[in-house]
Amino acid sequence: MAAAGRHEKEARQAAEEKARVEAAREMAEAQARAAAQEAAKRQAAEDARLKAEEAARKAAEGKPKSDAEVREQAERAEAGLKLSEQDRKRVQVALNSLGHEIPTATGYFGPRTRAMITAWQKTQGLPETGYLTEAQLATLRNEAAGGSATAEKALQEERTRADALARDLDAAQRKVEALTAAISTASGETTRVREDAMHAAQELQRSQQQERERADAFRREVETAERAAAELRHELQEERSRAEKLARELAAAGHELETQAKMLAKTRTTQNQELTELRQALQQAQTAAAAYQESLAQERVRNQQLAQEAAARRDATPDRGRTALPSPSDTPSTATDKAATAPPPKADKPPLPVGAKPATIVPPPTPPEVPGNPEAARLMARARLLVSQGNVGAARVVLDRAAETGSASALFALAETYDPVMLSAWGTVGTQADVAKARELYGKALAGGVHEAQDRLNALPQ
Fold first, then answer.
1. Distance (Å, rounded) from C-alpha 426 to C-alpha 415?
2. Model confidence pTM above 0.85
3. What's the CATH number for 374-459?
4. Which of 391, 398, 430, 428 shows the shortest CA–CA distance to 414?
5. pLDDT for residue 380
6. Structural domain spans, the chain
7. Please, which contacts does 371-377 make with residues 24 or more away whose CB atoms are closer than 8 Å?
8. pLDDT tens-digit map of 240-258
9. 448: confidence class by pLDDT, cuts 50, 70, 90
């Protein structure tokens, strides 16, 4: 009896040990298969990525010069693939797996499918034609296989491994049940083996759940990376747009500065030229003033000589004429004193030869003032100086420039230079009058508010 119990215990222990060894071996084989599958999956993804990069590079090297040629070439390339309805459905499923949603895989490439193909080509940096070449089709399939398909494959592998573990668990449970039946007398030991088996099953379930969670996390990381890449491409495009806008604004500012510099240089040149002309006119006026002063001194000397000659003649007059003529000490002396003491009249021109008729003095034009228009006032002052010098032709040029500023007074003064009445009053010689021109300019000045122009219009010869 004791020997039978001992043999039964030894048999139970041997069976338990064999079951433990078998379970450990199966667990090690399952882990080895999982590691091999993971390595193969990574290698396949890397191969797909390299093939896609090579296809994109070849497509970029063979890119035609125009978009129309690219589109036509891509359309011919897709037609040459002779895709069946099933192939087109696979393309639509691949686009759906990469986030380019197509409601239904119909096997027909309509506008929606073409738009999704274009969107996928844009994300890949490929020509946006809406048609797939052979290289692009391979890249799409590899990317789909390396993206969502990879995750689905990994999930399927996890499911397969879970099923294998479930089968192993079932086999282990059957072995446990067989051992339980063999050693039914050792109920306590059987209970412990059953609990160990259940614990192992729970461990296997937890491991399966962890594998599923890792697969889900990997898929989420891939989606997050794709969204981040899209955002980075968008930000890069915005930065390029801002840089181009700044470059255009900088070029416009440089052009404006250059234009302002040219205008400033032109203004300075004009001002310098006018200043030179004014200085020349001032020098001419000073020269004329010096000539006038010299002629004034000569006139004074001549007046003194005439006074002395008159006094000498009075001294030589006979005494019998004194009753009929005033005394030399009365009126002649008074006249002489006045001639000697009174200031002589100012002479505007040098003394004339005896017997010559004095010419009419040329008065400068006296148009009304030009308030609020300093440029017109400056030009009109210069024109008055030119008219006073007898240079009416030059005065017309200056007044024409003043009239361009919108000054009605400048129009009036310019009309006077064409008015035959005014030219005659000034004693101008060699300047051609123009009645029609004077009438036109007087009319404009009258419209501008110069009421004196009406009198001049009435005085013009018909």
1. 14
2. no
3. 1.25.40.10
4. 398
5. 93
6. 2-240, 374-459
7. 373/405, 373/406, 373/407, 375/402, 375/405, 376/402, 376/405, 376/406, 376/407, 376/409, 376/410
8. 888 788 888 888 877 876 8
9. very high
